[in-house]
Design a protein that fits this description.
InterPro entries: YdbS-like_PH. By secondary structure, the protein is of the alpha+beta class. It has helices at about 5-35, 45-70, 110-115, 135-150; strands spanning about 1-5, 70-75, 80-85, 90-95, 100-105, 115-125, 125-135. It folds into 2 domains: about 1-70; about 75-150, Roll (PH-domain like), CATH 2.30.29.30. The longest helix has about 30 residues, at about 5-35. The mean pLDDT is about 90.
Amino acid sequence: MKKLDPSALSIYRLRTSIGYGILWLIIIIVMVVLMFWMDIDIHRYVYYGLCGLLVITLYHILIQTYLSYKYYSYQINHDEITIERGFLFKRVEHIPMNRIYNVDYNVGIIMKRYRVKALSISTAAGLHAIPIVRSEEATEIRKFIKSKMVK
């Protein structure tokens, strides 16, 4: 089984940090408005809640992203693609090559910097993804799958 590209951990952490950074910015703006412009007293329970949110933020940035990276693997054979993911609840997806009708890759702003792509594999059952693969490898995988697809 192949693992995700090593830059996946950095990308996961950066994405999560950006999301939580926006959330914290909104919370700080609301608190400043409530405290200074509307002259509302913020109770200590709000501070306790913010400390709890800080713990959740750190958990997601440091631990959850690592677990997502560590417990994700895939394998591409001549007849199927196998994707395994999950820490507590393992999820294994077997995608037969003859059921695939489209393969695309996506490149976001952050992914472009790390020279990686996300593969999207479309079947009648839905969309499957290999989230972070080196650009050259993604192109090779796409060509291989396209050659095995039923015309």
